[in-house]
């Protein structure tokens, strides 16, 4: 198996066409076809099939595509690591960020990295937490913002903040709390709009409820922050989330957030990297900026209801 074969295969999947991939790769189409056939013979399986939509990956091809991407990225990172100048880092850095942290951190971080390191190509990936974990483990991401749920032992971790979670409803909702805080036994009686168990804040919420001998009665599972907001504004239920992704609606008076009085509902937000794949100088520079920007956002109050850990 050759590196060029991986590049050829990824290009075909990305462009959905042998002819377009051949043009981008500056290779004649028969030679490209021959290389892919040779790759499939070596692997003993079909990676691509032709459909009305063009060339598409088979199920085996989809799995191989993820690995090929990770390998090509690590090769690129290795090349950058030995050629870049330490005091002027360059290269591509990909950082994954969960939807519920993106509202507070993404734009300030993007702006700070562009201003400080113009030679770094900085790519932000907004994804569900479970997906980010797998992408970081496979090497497709250099860095990721993850929640410390006790499952991060396979990564280098730098805790950033401890973020309080609140009980949030639409203003004037039938599920709104009449007091300045809410108890767990009241909270669990409302229909709750929460992410699935594999993602986000849900495992932490379920852990706290188990410790208190309680469980949710009705759960509407929505993993998209945008859809979750719409469901809240439609008064389909309440949610338990940090305020940062809902802050614009709270400041406009469209939503109301109150703390939980009889349990500690919070999550630790950490900056993570692989223990097996070394960081490039560029990735280390971005990691440093993540910590600096986090401190700035907390001290200015732009990331509310958090305790600084970095």
Automatic annotation (TrEMBL):
<dbReference type="InterPro" id="IPR000847">
    <property type="entry name" value="LysR_HTH_N"/>
</dbReference>
<dbReference type="InterPro" id="IPR036388">
    <property type="entry name" value="WH-like_DNA-bd_sf"/>
</dbReference>
<comment type="similarity">
    <text>Belongs to the LysR transcriptional regulatory family.</text>
</comment>
<dbReference type="GO" id="GO:0003677">
    <property type="term" value="F:DNA binding"/>
</dbReference>
<keyword id="KW-0805">Transcription regulation</keyword>
<dbReference type="Pfam" id="PF00126">
    <property type="entry name" value="HTH_1"/>
</dbReference>
<dbReference type="InterPro" id="IPR036390">
    <property type="entry name" value="WH_DNA-bd_sf"/>
</dbReference>
<keyword id="KW-0804">Transcription</keyword>
<protein>
    <submittedName>
        <fullName>LysR family transcriptional regulator</fullName>
    </submittedName>
</protein>
<dbReference type="InterPro" id="IPR005119">
    <property type="entry name" value="LysR_subst-bd"/>
</dbReference>
<dbReference type="GO" id="GO:2000142">
    <property type="term" value="P:regulation of DNA-templated transcription initiation"/>
</dbReference>
<dbReference type="GO" id="GO:0003700">
    <property type="term" value="F:DNA-binding transcription factor activity"/>
</dbReference>
<keyword id="KW-0010">Activator</keyword>
<dbReference type="Pfam" id="PF03466">
    <property type="entry name" value="LysR_substrate"/>
</dbReference>
<feature type="domain" description="HTH lysR-type">
    <location>
        <begin position="1"/>
        <end position="58"/>
    </location>
</feature>
<keyword id="KW-0238">DNA-binding</keyword>
């Amino acid at each position: 198996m050759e590196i060029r074969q991986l590049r050829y295969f990824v290009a075909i999947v990305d462009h959905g066409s042998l002819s377009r991939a051949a043009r981008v790769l500056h290779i004649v189409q028969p030679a490209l076809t021959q290389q892919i056939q040779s790759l499939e013979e070596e692997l003993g399986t079909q990676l691509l099939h032709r459909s009305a939509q063009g060339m598409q990956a088979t199920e085996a091809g989809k799995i191989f595509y993820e690995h090929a991407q990770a390998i090509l990225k690590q090769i690129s990172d290795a090349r950058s690591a030995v050629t870049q100048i330490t005091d002027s880092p360059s290269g591509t850095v990909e950082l994954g960020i969960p939807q519920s942290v993106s509202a507070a951190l993404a734009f300030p971080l993007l702006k700070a990295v562009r201003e400080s390191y113009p030679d770094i190509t900085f790519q932000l990936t907004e994804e569900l937490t479970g997906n980010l974990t797998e992408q970081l483990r496979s090497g497709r991401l250099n860095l990721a913002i993850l929640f410390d749920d006790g499952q991060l032992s396979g990564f280098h971790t730098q805790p950033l903040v401890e973020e309080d979670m609140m009980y949030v409803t639409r203003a004037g909702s039938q599920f709104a709390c009449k007091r300045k805080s809410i108890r767990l036994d009241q909270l669990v009686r409302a229909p709750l709009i929460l992410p699935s168990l594999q993602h986000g804040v849900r495992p932490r919420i379920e852990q706290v409820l188990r410790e208190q001998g309680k469980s949710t009665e009705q759960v509407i599972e929505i993993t998209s922050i945008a859809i979750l907001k719409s469901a809240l504004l439609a008064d389909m239920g309440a949610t338990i989330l940090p305020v940062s992704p809902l802050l614009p609606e709270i400041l406009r008076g469209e939503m109301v957030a109150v703390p939980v009085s009889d349990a500690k509902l919070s999550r630790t937000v950490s900056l993570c990297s692989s223990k097996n794949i070394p960081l490039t100088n560029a990735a280390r520079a971005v990691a440093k900026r993540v910590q600096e920007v986090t401190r700035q956002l907390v001290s200015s109050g732009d990331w509310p209801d958090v305790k600084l850990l970095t």
